[in-house]
Amino acid sequence: MPGVLRTVSTAAFGIYDRAWTTASWPLIGLLNLIFRPDPETGEVSSWKVALWLVANSAILYFAVTDLDARPLFWGLIVFLLIHILIMVSSLRIMYEEKRVMEGSLTPEKMTFSAFDAVNNIPILGSSVVFYILGLAALIQTVEANGLAEILRQRPTLFTAYGSYLACVLNEIPIVNTIASAYANLTDQAENMTAQIVYAGWTGNGVRVVIAVTISLIVLRALLLRFQQWSHQLAMAHAIESGAVSPETVRKRLVRVPTTLRNHLMREALTNPDTTVRRRSLSAMAKLEVPHFARDFLMKLDTHLERDLGLAHIREAIAIMNTNAREKIATEISPIIERQMSTLRDAIEGQTKARLEEIRAMLSFPARN
User: Fold this and answer.
1) Which distant-in-sequence residues (6+ apart) come within 8 Å of 282 by Cβ?
2) pLDDT digit string, tens, across residues 64-86
């Protein structure tokens, strides 16, 4: 009997996993094509993120102010579907990253990349906000066009949209308490929760969808992202204290997270403890932090451990193949030239000599 249950549960999980993957891959591919995230860090250009925010805000604005346009109903359905799928896809990637960290999955067996656009924090965070705001706009659009009655009673707030948004927020733990307290303190509703009444099967069905998607997808995505952030800080502190080696951390990472990278760089620049500065620099080199050489050289004048950092850069370049060396040459050669010219009198002769060595390693004979 246990063997049968194990077989059934394995088959069920396989079906669930394939369904999750199938639902995620089309949007992941589309957003990667649109945003073109950095293949080494997952970062997306600021102007693309800004354009994304403006486009989504415009859709919400027209949905709230032009409720006579019935096509907005279907537009909002697509709008909400896109944002919930972004969260579902990000959860899929974070789930695989978690398995890699636990040692139950090797990085090369991941279905998706940890650098996909849906895993970008600004995009994921904005999707959480737009999904919640979009739910309120959809309910308002449905009732304003007479498509269905969802709310038999709702609180009277500053605007009609604000009332619908309060109904959605009321389904979010903790947020509902804060919203109710605000409405009470501003004399808009003595008991906001008591003033929200859903109508019949349709209204209560919508309420269940709101509660389920927010609790199982939206909050889970936020909590898992927070958990990853706390793990990254814990790894950074463990490296700095010498409790764990960078090699051990590297085996458990699919990528070098932004939080870990930024924390190590900050400690390498500003920590008054020489040992911590050196450990942070060594960790960035051994973890093969993307753009480490570029970021280090750009802040060369502020580093207290210049020679050590430059030594790590030389070692990394020495073991690179020709293609990798040409790629990094494109990235850091202009920075080296700029530092050599602008900091000529500000850095000691030993540092200038190290920069010249690196420049020589990146020089290639002209091609025919």
Assistant:
1) 246, 308, 312
2) 776 666 667 788 888 999 999 88
pLDDT at residue number 165: 85
pLDDT on residue 368: 39
Check residues 275 and 366 and name the one with the higher pLDDT.
275
Query: In the numeric block, which tokens belong to residue 208?
Result: 């269940």
- DSSP designation for 198: E
Between β-strands 197-198 and 151-153, what pairing exists: parallel, antiparallel or unpaired? antiparallel
The Cβ of residue 64 has, within 10 Å, a number of other Cβ atoms equal to 20
Distance in angstroms (rounded) separating the CA atoms of residues 213 and 224: 15
Q: Is the confidence at residue 160, as pLDDT, over 90?
A: no
CB 180 within 8 A of CB 191: yes
Exposure of 75 by Cβ count < 10 A (0-12 exposed, 13-18 middle, 19+ buried)? middle
351 — alpha (psi -120 to 50), left (phi > 0) or beta? alpha
For 62, 63, 142, 154, the CA distances from 68, given in Å and listed in that order, are 10, 9, 10, 21
Closest CA to 307 of 341, 278, 327, 338: 278
User: Which CA distances in Å does 91 have to 120, 124, 332?
Assistant: 12, 10, 35
Indicate if the alpha-carbon torsion angle 287, 276, 98, 121 is positive or negative: negative
Distance, CA of 194 to CA of 332 (rounded, Å): 62
- Stated pTM of the model: 0.70
Instruction: Select the more confidently predicted residue: 100 or 256.
Output: 100
Place of tokens 């929760």: 193
